[in-house]
Amino acid sequence: MGDGATAARRSPGRPRKADAERRILDAAIDEYLERGATGFTIDAVARRAGVGKSTVYLRWPDRDTLLVDSVLARSRAIEDVDTGSLRDDLIALSTNMLRFLLDPVGFATLRLAVEAVASRAAPQVTIDVAERHRRAAGVVLTRAAERGEPINPITRARVIECLYGAITLKALAHGLETDTTSDAETVAACTELVDLLLPLLLEHGRPPPDSVR
């Protein structure tokens, strides 16, 4: 009974490993969004997470590694889109990306890319996230070509870069003011971008088969 009582007394305030890790990762994102790279410290993360600094260091050797892991752990997977239409696929893909970047974790990823010069590990986050989007766009374009849509092999990479670059600028302009951006506005903005760039993606500006009425 004595041993059981002792264990019961010790359990409160001692988060389990998985719970402690989740709290640390959440605290790291919040700290970074509030203070940026220059104000991001292990001490502040530990205080916010309600754990000792040694608990953080047991899992992460330095602040850059912690920051990278916190962003990657909460980054959403890029949803696969297949509407049967290149235009609609690109609208869905770009809308997913803009929604992601307007989310606190997505915005943290974007901010990290801007501040990457001051961090040793941070560039890997931007490389990983960019590669996810690049792969998703590649799948959409390959599928469209297999359907017979006239993709221009010379312009395809540059057009996707332009599309994602414009989406990134929109996210930077909005910041974290997601309450003022409705989902309809997000879709409309991405539709406008896709319609502007789509002729450059197609050979000789020809429309895809399904758009011919």
TrEMBL record:
Record's keyword terms, sorted: DNA-binding, Transcription, Transcription regulation
Q: Which GO terms describe its molecular function?
A: DNA-binding transcription factor activity; transcription cis-regulatory region binding
What Gene3D superfamilies is this protein classified in? Homeodomain-like, Tetracycline Repressor, domain 2
Domain (HTH tetR-type) spans: 18-78
Pfam families, per this entry? TetR_C_11, TetR_N
Summarize which parts of the chain are annotated to bind DNA, as ranges: 41-60
PROSITE patterns given for it?
HTH_TETR_2
Q: Which InterPro entries match?
A: Homeodomain-like_sf, HTH-type_TetR-like_transc_reg, HTH_TetR, Tet_transcr_reg_TetR-rel_C_sf, TetR_C
What PANTHER family does UniProt report for this protein, alphabetically? HTH-TYPE TRANSCRIPTIONAL REGULATOR RUTR, TETR-FAMILY TRANSCRIPTIONAL REGULATOR
Name used for this protein in its record: Transcriptional regulator, TetR family
Question: Lineage, please?
Answer: Bacteria, Bacillati, Actinomycetota, Actinomycetes, Frankiales
